[in-house]
Structure formats: structure tokens, C-alpha cells
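User: Can you predict the 3D structure of Periplasmic chaperone for outer membrane proteins Skp? Sequence below.
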Amino acid sequence: MNKFLSNVSKLTLGIAIMTAAASCNQNTSGTSATKGDSTSSNVASDKVSNKIVYVNADTLSAQYEYFKDAKTKLEGKAKKAQENLQSKGQAFQRELAEAEQKAPTMSASERQATEERLARKQQELAQLNQNASSSLAQDEQTEMTAVYNTITEYLKKHAQENGYQYVLTYSQTNPAVIYADAKLDITKEVVAALNKEYKAKNTAKK
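Assistant: Sure. Here are the predicted C-alpha cells for Periplasmic chaperone for outer membrane proteins Skp:
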């Protein structure tokens, strides 16, 4: 269970998106073609370079309220499950100690029945632990998939509206991008927009 809590604290968004905004790009290229030589080479160069932007996944996971709420929710479930298992485990240990104390005064049949009962309880505890871990893993997958889908849907829309061909992701723990110009970093505006949407959804639910 401690391992799961550790995993929850290291959750990653994995938001690498390579969006080819076909319709948006077609419209943009069509408009550029009609301008002909009136567009300077510098402007054209800037427009091409700005079609690739990136989001800092570390910043996004630290500042996106939906992600933070999902993480807190998962950690709460993990803590509750751990406390429940710990309580049952301690009760089993007390029962085991009591049985060991009484063992010298038990008959052979009583001792055998007690051993079988305790063995069943031990198996039940092991199964309960396994079920709790599986349930928490499923909850984590469900929560993170929902967060991931929300982010990717917004970024697809944002890319199409701004003519971006690619939205890359950067993370210190998984640096697929070695270097990127800070001018291409759209994390701040993405976080602000996502938090605004999340707040609006929560307000609507109340």
C-alpha cells in the first residue's frame, strides 16, 4: 500500500500531443497564398516556427486544479484502504497471539480447528489486500484518464484555434525535449484556461 501511495505522488500526465490541425492549417495556408509577395520572409519564418509549441508537464501537474484534486482524492482512498487493512491486520495478530497463549490447554481437535480458522483469516487478509490494490489501481487509471482527456481535448482545440501543428510536452523527469525556446512555452496560458474551465464546471454542479 505504501508503494501505491508513492506511485500516486509520482503521477505523470503524459500529455505529449502531436496535433495536425488539418482544417486550420489549410485555411491558414490558403490565406497566405493569396497574399503572395506582400508577406515578408521574416514573418513567414516566425509563423512556421510558432506552429510548434510545448507545455511543461511538471508545471501543469503542479498548477492544474483538476489534477491536484484528482491526486488528493486518490491519496485519500489509498490512506483509507491502508488504515482499514492495518486495523484488520492488527486484529488478526491479537487473535493469533491469543490462540498461541491458549494452545497448551487445547485438545488436538481444538488446536487443529483454530489453526484452520486462522489460516483462512490470513488468506482472507491477503485477498483483501490484493483486492484493495487492484481497486486503487483502477481508480487511478479512471481518474488520470479523465484528466488526460480533458487536457488533450483542450489542447487540440487550442492548437486548431492558433494554427499549431504540434504541441509537445516537456518534463524534467522524462526530458524527451532537450531544449526549447521559452517563447514557445504556452504552459501558463494553458493552465489558466484549464483552471477556468474546471472552476466553471464545479460552479455549475453546485
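Residues 2-205 form one domain. The chain has seven helices and two strands.
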